[in-house]
Amino acid sequence: MGAQMLAVVALLALLSQALASDPSPLQDFCVAIKDTDYPVFVNGKFCKNPNYTTADDFFFSGLDKPGNTSNPVGSKVTPVNVMQLPGLNTLGISLVRIDYAPYGLNPPHTHPRATEVLVVLEGRLYVGFVTSNPDNRLFTKVLNKGDVFVFPEGLIHFQFNVGHTNAVAFAGLSSQNPGTITIANAVFGAKPPIKDDVLAKAFQVDKKVIDYLQAQFWMDNN
């Protein structure tokens, strides 16, 4: 009985992993098209007729160009997901280029639908992620050119340029549309705002502190 229970637990674990990623495609490809006028929602994008598909549907140009880091956080994320590259539809993968000014930060954020694997091309980055409650353990590492680090799906993570020069990283994500929730933006820049009573209680600070934070412009570097 013990061995059978272990087998069931193992099977459930495998099933949960399978269900936690983008659905597998049921055809060679499904190039995304703009949503039609029909009142139908799909988990992904509508498929282009394969007979009208071209090589350009699987092509994106521009990741050789640095992003503009002249902003309050000093970083810029250039995404290549299904919105920019329609051929990614149903393939369960995407990527980003991230540029960092000296001491630039990709602020604490999470991808609700993807694990991220990051590789440093230039510069030196201090990176990390925090585990879920109740432990909230912080895992950090300083990465140099050629180093790789993985951020597990859904966990809060960040990258900070600790060098005196610009830094560049590329990252692969396990979803065609991983989504990004920047923590400060979501909490203090929500529209409409979260009641300051709620946030004052949550952060154990005076409401004036919350009002000040909610009045700031929260930069989206994506």
UniProtKB/TrEMBL annotation:
PROSITE patterns assigned to the protein according to its UniProt record, in alphabetical order: GERMIN (PS00725)
A Gene Ontology cellular-component term: apoplast
Key word Repressor present: no
Binding site for oxalate: 106, 111, 116
Protein name, entry field: Germin-like protein
Family recorded in the similarity comment: Belongs to the germin family.
Coiled coil region boundaries: none
Location(s) in or outside the cell: Secreted, Extracellular space, Apoplast
Keyword tags: Apoplast, Disulfide bond, Manganese, Metal-binding, Secreted, Signal
Leader sequence residues: 1-20
Keyword Secreted attributed: yes
Binding site for Mn(2+): 109, 111, 116, 157
Domain Cupin type-1: 61-211
Gene3D superfamilies: Jelly Rolls
Single annotated GO MF: manganese ion binding
Chief localization: secreted
Disulfide bonding pattern of the chain: 30-47
Pfam families noted in UniProt: Cupin_1
